[in-house]
Amino acid sequence: MSTTNAWYLRCGRQDVAERAVLVGDRGRVAIAAELMQDVHVLGEDRGLTTATGTYRGTRLTVSAFGMGAPIAAVVMHELADLGVREFLRLGTVMTVGDTRLGELVVAHGAVRGESTSASYLPLEFPAVPDLPLTARVEAAARSGSRPVRTGIYGTFDGFYTQMTDSEPAVTSVRRGRDDLARRGVVATDMETSALFVVARALGVAAASLCLASVDGADQRRMEGTDRTDAEADLLRVGFDALAA
Ligand SMILES: O=P(O)(O)O[C@H]1O[C@H](CO)[C@@H](O)[C@H]1O
Ligand SMILES: O=c1cc[nH]c(=O)[nH]1
């Protein structure tokens, strides 16, 4: 791949910072842009939105991939080829076990329940974050006002078949969530394990910090200003960690 023009992100090495935030929802790029100065919105293709700006003197790139591990891996891969060295996923998760809505959850590892990471490294390889970056993330989270939880994520491809209580898989999904809780998993999402493994394969650092926005037990969702305020807190904490 050319290092001057990424296939899908449609930008060059000079357009991106060495530190990047990966979000799912494109709306979070707009919120992130409000936190930064000198913001440049970069090329947009297939709904992938990327912006680079400065936060407290540190240049940061924010990129939205949408949903799911395959496209998250494409975005990480292109940004790594362009020179990004540190990645922080800032997203949302569903609670497992004792995790409560509104908590910020720092990933200490992730169950590789998705298929994308196996195209980079075999399943024997663990999905673990970069530990120094994770320590920065945890410190920034603990200096904020929200409760912080740490632990293992479960990452899956099947939103309706592996994660939510939807027919026809509702019984196996509930059983699977109980099994994860018994083994100490604290949350589920669709990208974290893939990003950890892809980062290891490409020789870059990755960490993941997410807002618990859906209750796994009853599928209640954070809504309205509760949710938007919490997502703004998530972005501020994440930016503080990357700028530290
Ligand atoms: O809030 P984001 O970052 O999109 O993350 C979570 O939300 C989506 C599912 O609702 C998946 O992408 C999942 O990982
Ligand atoms: O239900 C949810 C909420 C956030 N992230 C997910 O992957 N699922």
From TrEMBL:
Catalytic activity: uridine + phosphate = alpha-D-ribose 1-phosphate + uracil
Enzyme Commission numbers on file: 2.4.2.3
Recorded superkingdom: Bacteria
Location of the Nucleoside phosphorylase domain: 19-219
Pfam families linked to this entry: PNP_UDP_1
Keyword set, alphabetical order: Glycosyltransferase, Transferase
Enzyme class: transferase
Keyword Glycosyltransferase found: yes
Keyword Glycosyltransferase among record annotations: yes
GO cellular component: cytosol
Entries under InterPro entries matching the protein: Nucleoside_phosphorylase_d, Nucleoside_phosphorylase_sf
GO terms for MF: uridine phosphorylase activity
Biological process (GO), any one: nucleoside metabolic process
PANTHER family associated with the record: FI09636P-RELATED (PTHR43691:SF11), URIDINE PHOSPHORYLASE (PTHR43691)
Protein name stated in the entry: Uridine phosphorylase
